[in-house]
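Final report, closing paragraph on structural work. Over the funding period we assembled a curated collection of sequence-structure pairs, and we close with a single example.
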Amino acid sequence: MTRLPLPKGLTFVKSPARDAVADNRPVEELVAGVLARVQAEGDAAVRAFSAQFDKAELDSFEVTMEAREAAVARLDPQTLADTEFAIANVRAFAEAQLGSLSEIEVEVRPGVHLGHRNIPLERVGCYVPGGRYPLLSAPIMTIVPAKVAGCEEVIACLPPNAHEAMIAGCHLSGADRIFRIGGAQAIAAMALGTESVPPVDKIVGPGNAFVNEAKRQVFGPVGIDQLAGPSEIFILADHTGDAEMLATDLLAQAEHDARTRVGLITTDAALARAVLAEVDAQLATLSTAETAGQAWRDYGEIVVCESEAAMIAYSDIVAAEHLQVHTEDAHSLSKKLRHYGSLLIGTNSSVVYSDKCSGTNHTLPTMGAGRYTGGLWVGTYIKTVTHQWLTEEGVRQVAPPAARQAASETLEGHRRAAQLRLDRMQVQA
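Its predicted structure, as stored:
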């Protein structure tokens, strides 16, 4: 359900059957209990919650270097090659992004020097979800940009029952330490620190509702990348759209989770009807139809817009996590869009490419957050901090207005601090 008014000229061929926003109070209460107990009991609490939630009895949480290397050795050769291919692309793009970040120092007035530096975070925690599938791209997307940014230590946490290939992915991506801890207890351990897990400065990565809520509750003393809801894909299409391709891409994302939000926004009513029929036809033979079909029935939508302007306006309200553009002039239309997580331009681009290996990051804003933020990138792991230094001429420039402003605000301490340096300079003169 959107909080913004819908543009005119929309006809819903299929509307979502359910609201994507659920009652989160039970999750909030459970997570608060997890955090409190981990803070009080450390490793003992983490061990107890791992047994309770993951059915895992662990003497040690950290994955040894021998186990990491063994996991890599047991990877299928083609899987290893494909993982290294994805890592290379994500690293190359992150390095290009890092190269675009400049440090500055400018003299805004005579003697008033201002600047900023880009400083990598010292220690970050990357949550790597286990999920229903071994998502080998997940550790790549969070760990590789952190290493490119220059973080001193990158901690990875993944559920103890995660596929062994996920450990290999963390290792190949460059994680300094890997812990077999999942769920809210993993977020608690990274945020608060335990006997085994060091506290981090920022936590990144997607997860289930409990992980998401834990990130929300620890935010403040610890930074987070974003609060992620269920995955989303929307596609903009005109009369040139291919119904088979559109339905295929929608269902590819829908199979992630039964709460995935999928939608087609089009200016062509005939295409809308064709896609509706094609989705049903493909679900009949899709091996993941139980999940994808549930997502489509509950959260799928198809809307016909009377004009391109209405299509753009509705898309910007949705602010989809992944937004594909299948129109006659996709590049031109794309320049008119402003709210989305990541844009896939033209029919040759697909969410599956960016999700897996093309190089852009798949950790993206959902639930309308694309209206105010972008996704995970190398800058997520860097803080831009300012500095200043003044010559005596700089003091002469800024001290008088600063002192006057402080006086007008009746802040006498401020006025004295502003005036002191100027007075001393005048005495020395």
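The two ends are 68 Å apart (CA to CA). The mean pLDDT is 95. We thank the funder for supporting this effort.
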